[in-house]
């Protein structure tokens, strides 16, 4: 919190988080289960770190692009205990949630050590963005670049350590990062109903992590069309950050030369996963998330 | 909520809703080319004129006759061009991000089939590649859907089975157990649905939603008399817009209990679709020899 107070010049930046009030969070059913502001001290925040592997910092920018929402998250739900330029901490500390950005260069000993250390120190490891999940654009690296031409092999985080949750996409959206942050908080600190919701919400993102470390527009062929599941809604084309997907007679056509392997199309497809128990409650959940960030 | 609790007891096949009525637009121009009651066009027209939406993603005319393409209507004129149903795939959701980018819409209206409404809600809860889109969906209108067809299937049905040129077709309709093709010169051809079934889009056979349960407002002909549509108002957003549109005189309405064939038929067809497709989903689990086909309702794996 130190840096946040500094930005806003609020109070001093010493540690007196207990004075902060705690958020009001409506639960899914909006059963008016409003938590007493005084009930919980802010000491109940979760510890979150941003671990930067080989990525372009776009994921971190995406996190920051929650603007006020990010400040609310840091105010009420999470302490940023580690993060490039954001937290003055040199070594990976113990934390509840590690948001990992970027793939791991296996020729870079520090990166390899740090990602292993992240696994040891973090209860939950979230791969944020295409590079961490699937390699993304770093899949195309063959080395030769200055000033470390021998750095040629980049692996998705999941090839070196177990990853718990995936947030695919390049860049991953501020809104999905935000939703996962709020749900991670509810999972670790919420009441029973909230924990239940968070578990259900995060399940498909955990299943994506189990699914593997390879993604491509081809997934739409292999796992959707070839499986007889495509109904031509267009989600994949909308999600693609490089406009590699068009629709021909209602079915996606992937320009594989353009695909950067970020995994957004498949994750966005309603026929990759569609969890009725969560999505049917969209109105209440969106209100809950909005409410949590007000 | 109280006003609907009674009808809601019928089951889950119709989804959650606050209001259910039979309705039609009061605008003669809209009705001229509307499929049924002109609900979608009228609702978007009202929302556009009132500034509730900046534009709507609709299915406009495409490059070939009766081939739709997603189209962003930002004026009433443009909306009018997309009246009526074209029974083949229009990937409307593919424009959902573009609408907020090149078109600069902050409040999007979108119309789509039940699966497209599912896609919209997934996009709001799990936006993997849809930055800043989730909070810009201002009005999602769903249409009842039993199944959809690829364009080539429609071509085959009209040209090979109904022996008509696609260019000379005035209207297509699925109703009363038949696929109807109306020609410009007044000729009518009806095909039994038995003929059309095999041409359906395969992806439709795992769909468990008939009346667009996740839309703000959903509508379709089933349950209402000819020229009228059955309307479900489902969400707070939908309720707000619908109530205002009624107050503005956009729609004539009749109580759904007083029209024939009524909600019972909607429920019956919804249950038929869900039961049949649930069975398909189950059969997929043992499709091969100890090999299953994917089930998106369980896992993305």
Structural write-up:
The complex is a heterodimer of chains A (294) and B (301). Residues 1-22 and 24-38 of chain A have low confidence and may be disordered. Chain A has a 5-stranded parallel β-sheet, sandwiched between helices. Chain A has helices at residues 2-8, 58-64, 68-77, 109-121, 130-134, 174-189, 192-211, 218-225, 235-239, 264-268, 276-279, 282-293, and strands spanning 46-52, 78-82, 95-101, 104-105, 122-128, 154-155, 165-167, 245-248, 251-254. In chain A, helix 2 packs across helix 6. Chain A is globular. Chain A folds into 2 domains: 2-213 and 283-293, 3-Layer(aba) Sandwich (Rossmann fold); 218-278, Alpha-Beta Plaits. Helices cover 38% and strands 14% of the residues of chain A. An 8-stranded mixed β-sheet of chain B has the order 3-2-4-5-9-10-1-11, sandwiched between helices. A 3-stranded antiparallel β-sheet of chain B has the order 6-7-8. Chain B starts with a helix and ends in a 17-residue tail after the last helix. Chain B folds into 2 domains: 19-145 and 209-282, no CATH class; 150-198, Nuclear Transport Factor 2, Chain: A. The radius of gyration of chain B is 19 Å and the shape is globular. Chain B is an alpha/beta fold. The chains are: A alpha/beta (294), B alpha/beta (301). Chains A and B meet through helix 6, helix 7, helix 9, helix 10 and helix 11 of A and helix 5 of B.
């Amino acid at each position: 919190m130190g840096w946040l107070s500094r930005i806003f010049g609020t109070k001093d930046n010493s540690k007196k988080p207990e004075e902060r009030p705690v958020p009001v969070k409506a639960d899914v059913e909006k059963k008016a289960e409003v938590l007493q502001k005084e009930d919980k001290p802010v000491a109940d925040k979760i510890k979150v770190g941003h671990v930067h592997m080989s990525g372009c910092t776009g994921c971190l920018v995406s996190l920051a692009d929650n603007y006020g929402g990010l400040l609310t998250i840091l105010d009420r739900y999470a302490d940023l205990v580690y993060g490039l330029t954001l937290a003055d901490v040199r070594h990976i500390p113990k934390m509840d949630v590690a948001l990992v950005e970027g793939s791991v260069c296996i020729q870079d000993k520090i990166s390899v050590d740090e990602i292993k250390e992240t696994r040891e120190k973090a209860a939950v490891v979230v791969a944020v963005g295409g590079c961490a999940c699937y390699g993304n654009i770093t899949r195309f690296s063959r080395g030769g670049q200055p000033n470390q031409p021998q750095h040629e092999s980049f692996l998705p985080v999941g090839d070196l350590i177990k990853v718990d949750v995936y947030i695919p996409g390049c860049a991953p959206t501020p809104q999905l990062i935000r939703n996962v942050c709020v749900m991670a908080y509810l999972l670790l600190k919420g009441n029973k109903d909230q924990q239940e919701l968070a578990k259900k919400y995060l399940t498909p993102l955990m299943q994506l992590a189990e699914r593997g470390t390879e993604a491509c527009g081809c997934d739409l062929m292999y796992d959707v069309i070839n499986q007889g599941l495509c109904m031509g809604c267009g989600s994949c084309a909308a999600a693609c950050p490089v406009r590699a997907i068009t629709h021909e007679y209602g079915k996606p056509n992937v320009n594989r030369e353009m695909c950067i392997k970020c995994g957004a199309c498949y994750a966005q497809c309603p026929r990759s996963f569609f969890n009725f128990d969560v999505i049917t409650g969209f109105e209440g959940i969106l209100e809950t998330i909005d409410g949590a960030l007000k | 909520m109280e006003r609907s609790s009674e009808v809601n007891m019928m089951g889950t096949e119709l989804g959650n809703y606050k209001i259910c009525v039979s309705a039609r637009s009061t605008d003669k121009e809209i009705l001229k080319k509307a499929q049924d009651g002109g609900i979608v066009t009228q609702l978007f027209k009202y929302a556009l004129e009132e500034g509730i939406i900046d534009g709507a993603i609709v299915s406009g005319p495409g490059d070939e006759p009766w081939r739709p393409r997603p189209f962003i209507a930002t004026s009433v004129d443009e909306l009018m061009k997309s009246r009526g149903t074209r029974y083949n795939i229009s990937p409307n959701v593919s424009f959902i991000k573009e609408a907020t980018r090149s078109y600069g819409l902050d409040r999007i209206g979108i119309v789509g089939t039940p699966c497209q409404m599912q896609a919209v809600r997934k996009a709001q809860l799990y936006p993997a590649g849809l930055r800043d889109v989730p909070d810009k969906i201002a009005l999602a209108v769903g249409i009842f859907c039993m199944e959809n067809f690829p364009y080539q299937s429609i071509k085959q049905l009209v040209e090979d089975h109904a022996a008509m040129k696609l260019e000379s077709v005035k209207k297509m309709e699925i109703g009363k157990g038949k696929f109807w093709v109306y020609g410009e010169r007044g000729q009518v051809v009806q095909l039994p649905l038995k003929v059309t079934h095999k041409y359906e889009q395969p992806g439709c056979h795992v769909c468990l939603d008939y009346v667009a349960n996740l839309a703000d407002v959903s509508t379709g002909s089933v349950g209402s008399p000819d020229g009228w549509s059955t309307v479900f108002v489902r969400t707070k957003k939908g309720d707000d817009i619908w109530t205002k549109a009624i107050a503005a005189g956009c729609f004539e309405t009749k109580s759904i209990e007083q029209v024939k064939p009524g909600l019972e038929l909607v429920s019956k067809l919804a249950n038929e679709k869900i039961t049949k497709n649930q069975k398909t989903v189950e059969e997929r689990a043992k499709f091969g020899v100890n090999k299953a086909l994917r089930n998106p309702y369980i896992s993305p794996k």
